[in-house]
Amino acid sequence: MPKKKRKRVALTEEERLLMMQQKQLAEEELNKKKEDMLAQFLKDKLAKEEHNCVLNMNKITLQWRTVLREVKARELRKDIEILSQTFERVVDCKDSVIKSLAKDLAEAEAQYAHALRSHLHSVDQLLQLQRCRLGYLEEDYHTELEALQKEFDTERKKIIEYHEQEIRYLQDVLLAMEQTFGESEYEGKLDFQSTRDDVKNKNLEEKHYLRMQLEGKVEELWKRFQQALRNYTEATEDRKIAFEALKLKDEKSTKEIEMQMKKLQKIQDLILSLKNKIAAHARESEEQNRLVHDKKEVVLKQLQKLKSEMNRARAKARSNLAKLTRESGATLKTLQHVVKKGELILRLAEMCRKLESEEEKVLPFYACSLDWEEQKTVDKVALEKPVEPLAQMMDDYVGLERFWQRYNKVRLEQLSLERTKAALAQDNEKLRQLLKQYLDGISVNDEVLSQINPLMIVNQHNTGPAVPPMVPVSDARVKKPIYNIVEAALEVKHIL
Predict the structure, then answer these.
(1) I want to staple 362 with a disulfide (CB 3.0 to 4.6 A). Which of 96, 226, 308, 385 is the partner?
(2) Which residues on adjacent β-strands are paired with residue 461?
(3) pLDDT mean across residues, the chain
(4) How does residue 426 score in pLDDT terms, banded at 50, 70 and 90?
């Protein structure tokens, strides 16, 4: 009875545990549903925000493209006007250049014909020399080939003779070895047959002797066994009857024991199965709780990650928009500055165009001072890929080569004019001094008499002071108007 009460108490506690686990599972399912609804709501909200962000970015790009199109259209109109002006000037230059090139082409064709004739003559001479050289080489080749063939034939004969000798020697050795091996093999077979027959006969004799002995022993043991069996049956007849009765009782008791053991085993199996089910349910519930908790943590982490990414995307979009506005403003300012600078350059170019001579209009670039071979070497070097970083950077400014040629031409002319101006200024200074001396010599007044005068000498001495002050060259009598000439290149340097 006390065992049954304990079992009922354990069952009621298990039922309470199962009820509590079921309640916890129901609460966790409700919480999971709420979390799923919240995650779905946040996903929908995030998708809506991304859609709005894409729409706003498309609107901004559309407005920015319209602004860029308007700016580009204005730039293209101005470029077309500039290009139309420059095109007319270039056409004039090209016409004059074509005429000069046609003349140069005729001269170049004549030079080419002369050079071709000389080249063909030199090629014929080289071919004749090459034919002679090939004849000598062919004769040397035939002589060396004959010598090598003779050496090869002699060596081949020697090798064939040595090979035949070796083959004959090896055949003799092989025949002798076959004979010796055949004799030894025959003797070995005979010895083996004789020893095998001896061993076989000996084993048969020993086997027959042992069989005779064993048969005698077996008959004697069988007789003893029959006698012992008869004595045992006579002595144990009464015990056998009692044994049969006890055996029947034992069978009945074993059957009852087996029935009871089967019942106990069934009860134990039932208890074990119930315990296993309870443990399995407990493990499943713990696993489900752990999985739900892990999913909850993962969803929370994903939600936090999405929030942080959305905030970063918003901040990045704001910063990009602000950066875009700043850069667009700076770009507009830079473009306006570039446009002003280009307009200024064009105005200065028109001004300089008016001051150009006919020769400069026809040939704006100075002729190259290199001859044909030097120019070919320079072109070959220019086609090679530069290795140094400075030379690689200069490849980006190849388009300005014509500009720098013209600029250098103007700069050289300016330097030559400055040197001419300095020489003329020195000559002018000397002429002014001579003119002043001449005027002082022919004029008579207080200022002239106070200075050294070559026309008034008394007793080998001048009447003026020992070291009279000289009239400066910048005096009004000798001073002439100076015209200031401002070069266009110098003015552009100060403006740009």
Answers:
(1) 96
(2) 458
(3) 77
(4) very high
User: What pairs with residue 462 in β-bridges?
Assistant: 457
The 10 Å Cβ neighbour count of residue 360 is: 16
361's CB contacts (< 8 A; 6+ apart) are 92, 93, 96, 353
Q: Give dist(CA 422, CA 412) in Å, integer.
A: 15
State the CB neighbour count (10 A cutoff) for residue 420.
Answer: 10
H/E segment holding residue 265: helix 237-355
- Number of H-type helices and E-type strands within the chain: 8, 2
Do 413 and 426 contact (CB within 8 A), yes or no? Answer: no
Distances in Å between the Cα of 114 and the Cα atoms of 6, 101, 105, 109, 461 are 132, 19, 14, 9, 81
Q: Which residue in the block uniquely carries the two structure tokens 């308007």?
A: 70
Q: Which two tokens stand for residue 459?
A: 């007793």
The total number of residues written for the chain in this structure = 496
164 to 60, 107, 161, 314, 359: CA distances (angstroms): 100, 82, 5, 98, 98
Q: How far is CA 4 from CA 10, 11, 12, 422, in A?
A: 10, 11, 13, 137
Q: Which residues contact 211 (CB under 8 A, 6 or more apart)?
A: none
The pairs formed by 31-34 with CB atoms below 8 angstroms and a separation of 24 or more are: 32/292, 32/295, 32/296
pLDDT of residue 370: 65
Amino acid found at 441: G
Helix (H, G, I), strand (E, B) or coil at 155: helix
Centroid of chain to Cα 215: 98
Residue 414: C-alpha distances to residues 361, 388, 403, 411 (Å): 18, 34, 16, 5
Q: Render pLDDT for 323-332 as a digit per residue (tens, 0 to 9).
A: 888 888 888 8
Angle at 398 between CA 392 and CA 403, to 5 degrees: 145
CB 283 within 8 A of CB 19: no
pLDDT at site 68 = 85
In 3-state terms, the chain is what percent helix, strand and coil (to 5)?
90, 0, 10
- The pTM assigned to this predicted structure is 0.27
